[in-house]
Amino acid sequence: MATFEVKNLQTEGFNTVYAHGGEGQDEAVFFLHGSGPGANGLSNWKKVLEVMGEKYEVFAPDFVGFGNTEIPENTDLTFWQWTTLRVKQVLGIMEHHNIEKAHLVGNSMGGVISMHAIMYDETKFDKLVLMGSGGGKTPGPTPEIIRMKGFFNDPTIESLRNLIKWFVYDETVLGDDLESIIQTRYENLMRSGMEELYPTLFPDNPMELLIPPSALRRIKQKTLMIHGYEDQFVPVEGSLDLLKHIPNAELVILKECGHWAQIEKAERFLELVDQFLTDEMKVLSN
């Protein structure tokens, strides 16, 4: 297993915390976490970094508003301003490490940020992996999403434990990691200022999360989508909608899998991502 370090970097006037491993490898991959309560780079991607870091230079930032990244002085931002700030975190890390081009792997909100990064500067990014990604049309906010956004209506560790269980199809796959994930995330949530900040990190109108089809069809990067069939936070219809519009894309749907394919179907997830990044995508022609 590869090792990684947790590092700090000043980006856009605040301190960004990120995990970094596989230094010196030829290709760089950024693993971008979602917006769940207490989310951060390591709780989403630790085991993935240990494996992928043997072959790639890997990064997992804590996005501003999450994890251990510093809360900026100005938090009066729209959802899209937060999104652009997170794109600039990725670009700042790339510049600091002299990385000209990187692959992106985004989960949930991390998928939305990945697509916005490509819209911001498509020359900086090669292949794109979207896992349980937002950005596509779904039947509407699920009860799980509503409870997630309203976490501070009942900010107890018991409430967080329920939410974390709902992220997966079967929580037994988390094993002994379950309580450590809950504890780490709860500590992040209880940081000073988070109760006021957390509700502002989500758009008031769910339609704001959608990436316009006119933007999706301009994504030229080869794209792999991975989605758990039983995902209760971003229903699989979201990836089916993205598939309609992203030109060079394929979708793999995993049964008995919720929102965290990288944990629930770890072996298959790693196999799919590595094969996708290594091989040219085989596109069937008519």
From TrEMBL:
Residues 28-266 form the AB hydrolase-1 domain. Keywords: Hydrolase. One of its GO terms (cellular component) is membrane. GO terms for molecular function: hydrolase activity. SUPFAM superfamilies: alpha/beta-Hydrolases. It holds the Pfam family Abhydrolase_1. The keyword Signal does not apply. Transmembrane segments: none annotated. InterPro entries: AB_hydrolase_1 (IPR000073), AB_hydrolase_fold (IPR029058), AB_hydrolase_sf (IPR050266), Epox_hydrolase-like (IPR000639). It comes from the Bacteria. PANTHER family: AB HYDROLASE SUPERFAMILY PROTEIN YCLE, MONOACYLGLYCEROL LIPASE. This is 2-hydroxy-6-oxonona-2,4-dienedioate hydrolase. It comes from Lacicoccus alkaliphilus DSM 16010.
